[in-house]
Write a structure and sequence with these properties.
The chain contains 8 helices and 8 strands; from the N terminus they run ββαβαβαβαβαβαααβ. The protein is an alpha/beta fold. The N and C termini lie far apart (about 45 Å). The structure holds nicotinamide-adenine-dinucleotide.
Length: about 280
């Protein structure tokens, strides 16, 4: 798929480098309304998907500008419309996150369009039909690792210098409850997600001195099109939840965690895995 980039700037207020990300939460006085992410600039991969769109929209509602990356051009356009409707600045990049050039372009886009980079949410996922490891080709294994794991490495590698130049930042690697526990037929997924949780911890050590916080965010089962596609009916998908709360999660419930990990409310959190799984992993 060819590269395409589109941008739209609305209601975006810039912040001097190194100010917002270091400060304690701002207390608002009567009549003022300021988002929890005001002035921040975020790259979100898989931005056209269920959780990626919810994250992008909530970021915009809280005052952030979003560079959305996805291979699905139509989904990106729908995400961009939702972000604009929420009053946020948005730029989109339609390309493969497994390529180094995409990571370089995404960071360049954030700097060119919005002047800084504060946040990376590595969220894209490449799924395969359920099968044990013996049913996987080497090509499929490599492709899932390229999209699900290499992309986090590539985006982080190129984002960190830009965040450093701005005084710090927050990196969120979207993992899964299946990074901590396993399900049958998903060896590639469990391996990549477990690696993302450890990658976040290791990066947190290396970049704490640059005021860059790195955490993983692990959703449990969430009602997105991708999740539902694994079942014959919506009812069957919903019945498969395995959660203590007796239901699937909603994309906005995961996005709320991403907003928290991006905001100054989580300023003392790094190297953590934030599980939002409805109690899936409790038993
Ligand atoms: N939905 C769940 O139940 C669930 C549970 C645990 C973890 N997660 C994680 O949450 C994240 C989002 O999941 P989702 O359910 O919203 O998935 P989704 O399929 O709705 O969204 C994923 C997006 O990634 C994009 N994508 C795929 N390959 C790409 C590539 N090579 N380059 C760029 N973009 C690419 C897709 O086009 C899609 O828009 C994933 O990391 C997933 O593993 C989801």
């Amino acid at each position: 798929m060819g590269k395409s980039r589109q941008s739209s700037l609305t209601h975006h207020a810039f912040t001097a480098p190194g100010t917002m990300s270091m400060m304690a939460p701002i207390l608002l006085t009567k009549g003022t309304s300021m988002g929890r992410l005001q002035g921040k600039v975020a790259i979100v991969t898989g931005a056209g998907g269920g959780i990626g769109t919810a994250i992008s929209r909530q970021f915009a509602s809280e005052g952030a500008a979003v560079v959305g990356v996805d291979v699905d051009t139509g989904a990106l356009a729908r995400m961009a419309a939702a972000v604009r409707a929420a009053g946020g600045g948005v730029s989109t990049l339609s390309d493969d996150v497994a390529d180094d050039a995409t990571a370089v372009a995404a960071v360049a886009c954030a700097l060119a369009e919005f002047g800084r980079l504060d946040v990376l949410v590595s969220n894209a996922v490449y799924d395969l039909p359920l099968a044990p490891l013996t049913g996987l080709s080497l090509a499929d294994w490599r492709r899932t690792m390229a999209v699900n794991l290499d992309s986090a490495f590539l985006l982080s590698k190129h984002a960190i210098p830009a965040m450093d130049a701005g005084g710090g930042g927050s990196i969120i690697l979207v993992a899964s409850q299946l990074g901590s526990v396993a399900r049958p037929g998903r060896p590639w997924y469990c391996a990549a997600k477990g690696a993302l949780i450890q990658l976040a911890k290791a990066m947190a050590l290396d970049h704490a001195g640059q005021h860059i916080r790195v955490n993983s965010l692990s959703p449990g089962p969430v009602e997105t099109d991708r999740y539902v596609r694994n079942f014959d009916t919506l009812e069957a998908a919903r019945a498969s939840h395995h959660t203590l709360l007796g239901r699937l999660g909603a994309p906005d419930e995961i996005a709320a965690g991403a907003v928290f990990l991006t905001s100054d409310e989580s300023a003392f959190m790094t190297s953590t895995d934030l599980l939002i799984d409805g109690g899936y992993t409790a038993v």
